Backbone:
C-alpha cells in the first residue's frame, strides 16, 4: 500500500479533532498528513477517523430528502420550521434528517435569536466527492495516454 | 481524436463508469488490454510507470504488475480474469500484492468491466466500470498509482450532489 502519495489534506473538522488527539498543532501536521509527517501508528489512527467520517457522509447522502435539505441549505441558511414545511412529513422527522446531516458534518446548526438556522457545510461536500474525483483523474490520465499511443501509431503509419 | 464522452459517478453504489471515444477499431483497442507492452504505456502515469510480469487473459488467469515510483519504490498489483469475450468485453478483479507479487488477501479488491463497442460513424467507444465493495476499499484502491489524482479539483461545486439530485 502506498499511502505516501495520497497527499490530500484532511478536511478541517476531522483534522482538528485528530490532531488534538495526537497532541499536535494543526499547522504542523495538516499540509501532508500521509506524507511522512506523522508516524505510521498515528497515520493509522488518522486513517480510521477519516474513514468513519466518510461512512457517515455517504450514509447521510443516501437519502433523497436529506440531499434536498442539503441543497437548500448550501444556498443559504434556513430555519428548521421552514425546511419542515417543504416536505410531507412531520417536523420531528425533518429534524431527524437534519441531525443525520449534522452528524456527518454536512450541515452546521447555528442559533440566531429564537431561531435555529441550518446551513450547508461546503467543505464536507468536497470531501465526499474527493475519492471519485481522484478515480476520475486516474482514468482521464490513462485515456489521455491511450490517445497519445494511438496518435503516435497513426503518425508512424503516415510517415512509413 | 480521443475524448472522454461521459463520466458517471455514484457514491452510493460505489461505482464509476467512464466512457471514451477512441479513433481506432474495436480490435485495435482490444490490444491496449491484451498486449502487456501496450498496457505498460498507459496503465501507470509517467511518474509511476507499470511493468507487467504475468499477463494471462483467460478466464481464471492472472496478470501481475508493479508500478515504480520516483524513488524506485515498487507497488505491486494483480488482476484475475472473471470473464472475457474478445474483442468486446473483459471483466477483471483488481487487487494488491506484497513486494514479492504474492496477492495480499487482507486487502480489498475491486471489479472492473471493460466494454468495447463500435461506434456508428467511425471510431469506437471504450467503457470502464469500476465497482468497489466498500468505501474503505475505494480509499485503498484509489490511492494506488494516484499521483496525478492529487490535482483533482477540490474547489469545484460537488458534481456528485448535482448528479444525485437531478436523477432523484
Residues:
Amino acid at each position: 500500500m502506498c499511502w505516501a502519495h495520497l497527499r490530500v489534506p484532511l478536511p478541517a473538522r476531522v483534522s482538528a479533532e485528530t490532531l488534538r488527539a495526537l497532541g499536535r498543532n494543526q499547522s504542523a501536521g495538516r499540509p501532508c498528513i500521509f506524507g511522512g509527517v506523522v508516524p505510521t501508528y498515528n497515520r493509522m489512527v488518522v486513517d480510521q477517523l477519516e474513514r468513519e467520517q466518510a461512512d457517515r457522509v455517504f450514509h447521510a447522502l443516501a437519502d433523497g430528502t436529506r440531499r434536498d435539505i442539503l441543497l437548500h441549505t448550501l444556498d443559504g441558511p434556513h430555519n428548521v420550521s421552514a425546511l419542515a414545511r417543504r416536505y410531507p412529513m412531520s417536523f420531528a422527522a425533518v429534524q431527524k434528517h437534519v441531525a443525520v446531516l449534522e452528524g456527518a458534518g454536512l450541515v452546521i446548526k447555528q442559533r440566531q435569536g429564537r431561531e435555529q438556522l441550518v446551513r450547508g457545510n461546503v467543505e464536507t461536500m468536497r470531501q465526499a466527492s474527493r475519492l471519485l474525483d481522484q478515480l476520475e483523474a486516474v482514468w482521464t490520465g490513462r485515456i489521455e495516454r491511450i490517445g497519445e499511443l494511438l496518435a503516435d501509431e497513426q503518425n508512424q503509419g503516415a510517415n512509413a | 481524436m480521443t475524448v472522454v464522452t461521459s463520466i458517471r459517478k455514484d457514491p452510493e453504489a460505489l461505482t464509476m463508469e467512464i466512457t471514451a471515444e477512441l479513433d481506432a477499431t474495436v480490435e485495435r483497442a482490444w490490444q491496449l488490454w491484451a498486449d502487456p507492452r501496450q498496457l505498460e504505456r498507459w496503465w501507470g502515469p509517467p511518474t509511476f510507470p507499470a511493468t507487467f510480469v504475468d499477463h494471462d487473459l483467460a478466464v481464471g488467469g492472472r496478470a501481475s504488475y508493479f508500478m515504480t515510483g520516483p524513488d524506485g519504490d515498487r507497488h505491486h498489483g494483480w488482476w484475475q480474469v472473471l470473464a472475457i469475450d474478445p474483442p468486446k468485453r473483459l471483466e477483471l478483479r483488481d487487487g494488491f500484492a506484497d513486494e514479492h507479487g504474492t496477492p495480499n488477501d487482507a486487502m480489498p479488491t475491486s471489479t472492473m468491466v471493460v466494454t468495447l463497442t463500435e461506434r456508428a460513424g467511425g471510431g469506437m467507444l471504450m467503457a470502464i466500470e469500476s465497482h468497489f465493495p466498500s468505501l474503505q476499499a475505494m480509499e485503498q484502491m484509489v490511492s494506488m498509482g494516484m499521483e496525478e489524482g492529487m490535482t483533482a479539483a477540490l474547489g469545484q461545486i460537488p458534481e456528485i450532489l448535482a448528479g444525485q439530485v437531478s436523477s432523484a
Observations:
- The beta strands of chain A are 78-79, 107-112, 115-120.
- Residues 122-159 of chain A form the longest helix (38 residues).
- Residues 1-60 of chain A form one domain.
